[in-house]
Specification:
alpha/beta, 5-stranded parallel sheet, 5-stranded mixed sheet, binds xanthosine-5'-monophosphate
């Protein structure tokens, strides 16, 4: 049976046993709802859509088609991980669309943050709808709506981003198997489904991806610099035991250069900003103050390994007055 609302007396899912009971219940509910029809799912590789994909694969196998749209703004290794986990390990029916050129061509020269977000959102829907149109007999759309999304949209705090982000014009019935769960419960269920720990416990990552961390008009070389610097930062945070402890951490590469020296010669290169924050509700955030030796190490690695970066800055501004992201 599909539950529309979270029962008041529902026990918080905190153990593998509770997760397994939820998984069994949902598998039966999905099978009852879907029957022998087909389901389509936009699989970003984020926690919620990944857990929905894993649940649907268990429940209906190849009646599910997942579409992973790579908009070219994902972090290093992310598209590869989605393909490896879902296509190779879980044997899902996965359509991988590399739409990098489409997105970056549309974004070329666009400086306004809102316009950038709009272009990314619209184009995502277009690409997804094009893929959906190629498939036959799709009746359902899987979605990673979670309980806070429903509460927040009911309270008018924010538009329901899981619904808002997907093609409304496509007339599908929704399958939302984690919609009565809180985020921490989605993670416990994800681990019980066998998803990699790093995927289930990954830090929040905005829909427009590295696009908002490459402020101003995105260029391919600066985007590559922010992606490489981000990969180094994540690797070093993991080595330092900070992964899963610090709420969110990332790099930003603004669109201007400063003077430096490389091999005795003057260079004019970008700078990289490191931001690491902690929060519970993202309304207010504090800054994670890193150890000086660790900061030195990050500066050394990024300035020697990332092409085009000769300077590293640390952002120690809380929210408010600064937002988490730069755009
Ligand atoms: P701000 O910058 O508003 O960020 O303080 C708060 C949290 O939201 C994330 N964020 C986004 N997530 N789409 C998303 O899915 C977006 O457009 C977006 N903008 C910001 C941000 O990473 C932080 O965790």
């Amino acid at each position: 049976m599909i539950m529309e609302r979270r029962p008041d007396n529902m026990v918080r899912i905190t153990t593998p046993e509770l997760a397994q009971a939820y998984i069994d219940e949902q598998i039966a509910a999905i099978r009852e709802q879907v029957g022998d029809k087909k389901v389509l799912l936009a699989l970003s590789g984020g926690v919620d859509s990944s857990v929905v994909a894993a649940l649907l694969i268990k429940a209906i196998g190849n009646q599910l088609t997942c579409v992973h749209v790579n908009h070219g703004l994902l972090r290093k290794g992310e598209p590869e991980q989605v393909v490896e986990v879902f296509r190779n390990q879980m044997k899902a029916n996965l359509i991988y669309v590399d739409a990098t050129d489409r997105f970056l061509d549309l974004l070329a020269g666009v400086e306004d943050p809102e316009q950038k977000r709009h272009i990314i959102g619209e184009e995502f829907i277009k690409v997804f709808a094009e893929e959906a149109a190629k498939l036959e007999g799709i009746k359902f759309l899987g979605q990673g709506t979670i309980w806070p999304d429903i509460l927040e949209s009911e309270q008018g705090i924010k538009a329901h981003h899981n619904v808002g982000g997907l093609p409304k014009e496509l007339d599908f019935e929704l399958v939302e198997p984690v919609k009565i769960l809180f985020k921490d419960e989605v993670r416990v269920v994800g681990e019980a489904l066998g998803l990699p720990h790093g995927m289930v416990y990954r830090q929040p990552f905005p829909g427009p991806g590295l696009g908002v961390r490459c402020p101003g008009a995105i260029t391919r070389d600066r985007l590559e610099a922010v992606r490489e610097a981000d990969a180094i930062l994540r690797e070093e945070f993991a080595k330092e035991g900070l992964e899963g402890k610090v709420w969110q951490y990332f790099t930003v590469v603004p669109p201007f250069r400063s003077t430096g020296i490389r091999d005795g010669k003057r260079v004019f290169e970008w700078l990289c900003i490191i931001r690491a924050i902690n929060t519970t509700d993202v309304v207010e955030c504090t800054v994670e103050h890193l150890e000086p030796a660790f900061m030195d190490h990050l500066v050394k690695r990024i300035t020697t390994e990332v092409k085009g970066i000769n300077r590293v800055l640390f952002d120690f501004t809380p929210k408010p007055c600064a937002t988490v992201e730069y755009e």
